[in-house]
Design brief:
The complex is a heterodimer.
Chain A (H helix, E strand, L loop, with lengths): L3 E3 L4 E4 L4 E7 L7 E6 L5 E7 L4 E3 L2 E6 L4 E6 L8 E8 L8 E3 L3 E6 L1
Parallel strand pairs in A: 2-11
Antiparallel strand pairs in A: 1-3, 3-8, 4-5, 4-9, 6-7, 7-8, 9-10, 9-11
Chain B lengths: L3 E4 L2 E4 L5 E7 L5 E8 L3 E10 L2 E4 L6 E3 L9 E3 L8 E8 L10 E2 L3 E5 L1
Parallel strand pairs in B: 2-11
Antiparallel strand pairs in B: 1-3, 3-8, 4-5, 4-9, 5-6, 7-8, 9-10, 9-11
The chains are: A mainly beta, B mainly beta.
Chain lengths: 112, 115
């Protein structure tokens, strides 16, 4: 079983749609969680951290369910520029090693 | 602005040659990491360092080495390049875990082809 699992997609949605991505992680000791965005052939960039209470940044909302070891990312009012691969990322254990575990990513394609 | 740079951005080499990929960060981060990214595997950790003179093996370290002589640089060396090492290589850095900040910041990547 992979340590971080994501549905690879692709998710093809029209502009303005709401889309949700899910991610599960296997290590219950993981303490910090992130969503990264990666554009084709470019480096991953931090989109947002995920907090226990859930958090929102503009059109993006992240949720964490520790009991189910499940993380989600909701994108509202999708833009063409949201087309990218979204990586679910968790700390390896408590995070005191500084190491992160990356999911393989979910690809989003927003169509006009 | 602080940044992390990699060079070269593209490299073509032949099997058996030694290749060094450079990574330089101006974040003043203690932690630095090298990953490779291949289709079907996502990002895999090659080597990492917690500070000057410290280096550690990641999950796919065979055939690679690193050295850390200062805070800013962590060069990655392929001792004898193999076709299986054709990949995109990303360098990343982060603050010390004691800061409570775990997010990593990535360089633009080096696309390496071994013929």
């Amino acid at each position: 079983r992979k340590e971080v699992e994501q549905d690879p997609g692709p998710f093809n949605v029209p502009e303005g749609a709401t889309v949700a991505f899910n991610c599960t992680y296997s290590n219950s000791a993981s303490q910090s969680f992130f969503w990264y965005r990666q554009d084709c052939r470019k480096e991953p960039k931090l989109l947002m951290s995920v907090y226990s209470s859930g958090n929102e940044d503009g059109r993006f909302t992240a949720q964490l369910n520790r009991a189910s070891q499940y993380i989600s990312l909701l994108i509202r009012d999708s833009k063409l520029s949201d087309s990218a691969t979204y990586l679910c990322v968790v700390t390896r254990g408590s995070g005191n090693t500084g190491k992160l575990i990356f999911g393989q990513g979910t690809t989003l394609q927003v169509k006009p | 602005d602080a940044e992390i740079t990699q060079s070269p951005r593209h490299k073509i080499t032949e099997t058996g040659r030694q290749v060094t990929l450079a990574c330089h960060q101006t974040w003043n981060h203690n932690n630095m990491f090298w990953y490779r990214q291949d289709l079907g595997h996502g990002l895999r950790l090659i080597h990492y360092s917690y500070g000057v003179q410290d280096t550690n093996k990641g999950e796919v370290s065979d055939g690679y080495s690193v050295s850390r002589s200062n805070t800013e640089d962590l060069p990655l060396t392929l001792e004898s390049a193999a076709s299986s090492q054709t990949s995109v290589y990303f360098c990343a850095s982060s603050e010390s875990p004691s800061s409570g900040r775990y997010e990593q910041f990535f360089g633009p990547g080096t696309r390496l082809t071994v013929l």
